[in-house]
Amino acid sequence: MTKRSRQTLDQDDPLCCCEYIDRRGGRNHLAACCCDCEDLDEACDRWMKKKPQNPDSLSRVMATFNDRLRVPWISGARQVDISVIPPLILLPVFLHIAALHYLLGILVLTAVSVLVLWYYYYTHRKKGRTLFFLSLALFSLFYMFYLFITEVVPRGGVNHLQLAAVTVGVALTVIFLIITKRGPGYVRPRPTDTHSTVTYHKPPSDVDAAYLNGAQHQVVIANHEQTGESGTAQQSVQRRNWCAVCKVVRPPRAGHCRIGGVCILRLDHHCLVGGINSCVGQDNHRNFLLTLVFFLLTSLYGISLVLRSACSDQNVMTALFYCPDVYNQFSSALCFTCAWYSCVVTGGLLHLLLLQLINVSFNVTEREARLALREKTIRSLLWGLIIDTGVYSRGF
């Protein structure tokens, strides 16, 4: 009791770089990461005594582990999401294994693609928020650029202008990725619809932290008595566009993102595969498309330079499928494997960009297309690749 009271009393003091407030509200230190772990002790004790584990024991152990996985920071230790770590470790290991033999390359790249797709559908179905895809996208970009600098450029065949072009492409991709994450366009409460407002200074865990700069306002709509047909129609529209989660009246084409936990103006989708780990809406849709365009241009140009360096005697179009003696030297094999990995990523994002451009040409969002498919109120062409709702389209 004395220890807990001291922790409570000392919480108002400034945190040092190695201290933090844990998930139970107590003051803790990085050096005590293996101390006072009641959840882990209980799980190990039940395992040693051959007793069945509690249903939530594993989740509590993982929650404690995630809470104590931190790095020192100026105003207190910052928490590190565990989903960030696997790409940083597994991607270089898998690529180096795949570079040992072409059969290993086929096996590893296929397995990685299947696992990433499975994790995407699993996360999307569970409505989960994860930094795995953001970490994978950024680390893949920087790791490919690092290998390009250290493995391809020293081999010759890449002049300063080509190196500058790849560097500018990587920089523009990162810049527009940062701009895209600034905000998709949140639905703000309108004073005319507000009867009272309750302010939460700390957003819930399932709400985007960028929403209202970290503070979410829950708005209660006033029950004004309205008469006449216009009043009845207005009440009907408000009831249909009312979001019970965010407590706001959504404008036309706005939607509630079940992953981000907020309402977005002209919501398109919540992007996980693209690497932004954010909603795509009215304010960042154009920047999202530009991020994809700059990445694809940089990736395709970089792949061509890598293939010209690793398979100098082959044509670029055929070198990806036939490059003799490339596995005789590990450096060339690693470059060739990274080119194949980049092709897989580029193919996936190229498909995403193609779908986005088709939707834009018909002035329809991904969310509206899915709703129309569910309600079967659409005109579908090319096996569902082209979807025209006929509501907002102004022609190509």
Notable characteristics:
transmembrane, protein-cysteine S-palmitoyltransferase activity, two-stranded antiparallel sheet, single chain, mainly alpha, disordered N terminus, PFA4/ZDH16/20/ERF2-like, 396 residues, 12 helices
Description:
The protein has twelve helices and 14 strands. The protein is mostly helical. Among the domains are: 62 residues, no CATH class; 180 residues, no CATH class. The longest helix is centred in the C-terminal third of the chain and has 32 residues. The relative contact order is 0.08.
Give a nutshell description of this structure:
It is found in: Golgi apparatus, trans-Golgi network membrane. With 396 residues, the chain is mainly α.
Task: Describe the SSE topology.
Elements: H1 2-9, E1 19-21, E2 27-29, H2 38-48, H3 57-68, E3 70-71, E4 78-79, H4 85-98, H5 102-125, H6 132-152, H7 160-180, E5 194-200, E6 216-221, H8 228-241, E7 242-243, E8 248-249, E9 255-257, E10 262-264, E11 269-271, E12 278-280, H9 285-310, H10 316-319, H11 330-361, H12 366-375, E13 379-381, E14 386-388
Antiparallel strand pairs: 1-2, 3-4, 5-6, 7-8, 9-10, 11-12, 13-14
Helix pairs in contact: 2-3, 4-5, 4-6, 6-7, 6-11, 7-9, 9-11
Strands of the widest sheet, in order across it, are 1-2
Number of helices: 12
Radius of gyration: 26 Å
First CA to last CA: what distance?
A: 70 Å
Mean pLDDT: 80
Query: What percentage of amino acids are in beta strands?
Result: 5-15%
Output the helix-strand order. HEEHHEEHHHHEEHEEEEEEHHHHEE
The quaternary state of the protein chains shown equals single chain
Number of strands: 14
| pLDDT < 50 stretches | 1-9, 215-228
Largest sheet: 2 strands, antiparallel
Helix vs. strand class: mainly alpha
Range of helix content: 40-55%
